[in-house]
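Entry type: protein chain
Record version: 2
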Amino acid sequence: MMEAKNGTGTLPAVWVATIPLAVLALLLFLVIRCFGGGAIDGGSQIALLSATSVAVMLSMGIYRCRWAVLEDAIVDNIHSSASAIVILLLIGAIAGTWMVSGVVPTMICYGLEILHPSFFLVASCAICAGVSLMTGSSWTTIATIGVALMGIGQAMGFAEGWVAGAIISGAYFGDKVSLLSDTTVLASSTVGVPVFDHIRYMLRTTVPSFVVALVVFTVAGLTLAHGDATHADFYAASLRETFRITPWLLVVPLITGLLIVRKWPAIVTLFIAVVLACAAMVAAQPELVARIAGTETLDPLTAFKGVLMSCYGPTALATGEPQLDELIATRGMAGMLNTVWLIVCAMCFGGVMTGSGMLRALTEVFLRFVHRAFSAVASTVGAGIFFNLCTADQYISIILSGRLFRDLYADRGLDPRLLSRSVEDSATVCSVLIPWNSCGMTQATVLGVSTFVYMPYCIFNIASPLMSLLVAATGWGIRRTGKHA
């Protein structure tokens, strides 16, 4: 038996380890049936905690696992997600301040003038890919450029699922092939592959997947029904009546992008982005700040109150057009609290599954099927998706997948670049497709679109693991290192 980190020295039986997962799947199914898009408001959190309690009872009751071991695993998991929680709260503040300051409305207005509706989807995918490639951050791209494109797409009459899918597809492609991406560096370093070699090897699956996405979004843009130029002009005119639109407001996203390119820490960069937007808000939209604060005139105290309310709370500005009112309404940091709550509950579940040894027992199942290159890639892809489901975190999934298969690939004489690429093709890009994963929860909250709504339209994210399997099946670019089991 392999040593498990549960204090007992044995791994739980596979059938026991599957019980908490089965309970979680059943509860989440019932929650989604009952609450639909409102599942994140509390039902999903209760489902995760209930499945956690089942895992605790099984590990302590059957295998005499000590509570202290499980508690330490939970604390470690939550500790690893602390930065993501802070980033999520700052993104909430950005959503409020960038909207009220007029930054996002300005980007929407100019975007409506430049982007033709027929090519909007493919252009959005390409724009987000370029921004993520330069910044290395899909989260930041989606929270800034993505939010603006979401507004433009809705103004043009596109279904929100298509727009969100194009944004996410482009952002995750750029993130995967960027030298500045933390997930790219993490995947290569976990396996022990130089990052340049890792990125070059990834292009064999990543570029074809992205081409597929561009083709789909091009065809969709040319065939789907959408608003005409008059419809877009009406939204632009309504925005100009509500906000003071000026190119000077674009200084805020430009400085934010520059800080990201210079590799400033994400939390510091996002905080500066909020501060810049607050200053722009007072300078460019004083009437709106006063209206949010509940007064007619703006004085220093009123400005302070309005700025803080835009950061932490919901804002609703009337434009005379209900759909546009919904578009520019924001929830601030408070709107992220349900997501933070869900992340904490997901980390509790992942911690107990790891600390009890149940996760390790389940991963042993994958190892039985690894014999040839295709089976190794298929097992790695399956493990990456499986870990995303279980741990609800892409970083944990990358580390676990890389460490689990690293020695096995070496024993089978398989190129380690094949492992690092397979990990990225599954653990990284599929995380956003899982509703209770930190990535899926974050992007659904930021874009205001349920994970189940945008999931079918994330063409790149769906194509990547399939392309990884296809390339492995053909044997293209796969070579042995000389070691064999």
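Comment: The chain is about 75% helix and 0% strand.
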